[in-house]
Amino acid sequence: MEISPIGYVRNKAEEDTRFEDMASEIEILPEFVGGLFRIEECEELDVIFLFDRSSFYKMKVHPHHDPAQPEVGVFASRSPKRPNFLGLTRVKLLDCKDNILVVKGLDAFNGTPVIDIKPARPRDQVGKNHK
Fold this sequence. Notes:
Layout: E1 7-10, E2 23-28, E3 44-50, E4 60-61, E5 72-73, E6 86-97, E7 100-104, E8 113-119
Antiparallel strand pairs: 1-2, 1-8, 2-7, 3-6, 3-8, 4-5, 6-7
C-alpha cells in the first residue's frame, strides 16, 4: 500500500499547545489544488494526517498520556501511537486562498503530512447555507 501526502501542516504548535484554539494552515501541493474547488462552501472538514513523529505503537494507552487515568485500548483513544500512524481531526474552515487552507482545531504539528481532506457532512448538504 502506498500513500502520499497531498499537503503539509504549517503552524507554531509545541508539545503543550491547546490545539482546539489554534489556527493552522494546510498547504496543498500544486498537483492537488484542483481538489479544493468549492471547498469554501464547507464549514467543517475532516483532515486525515500522518503521525510522522511516532515510531512505535502500543495496544493499550493512558488517555491524554496521563498515568492517573486507567488504560484503554488504542482504538478507544486518540493516541498518536497507532498501528498505522494515522490521525483524523474535524476542523473549522476559516479561509481558503489559492493552495492554503486556514483551519482551527487541527491537532498536528508543523510539517505534518496531510493524507486527505473530506467535508464533515454529506456532499448533498454542502453549499445549502450558501446562496
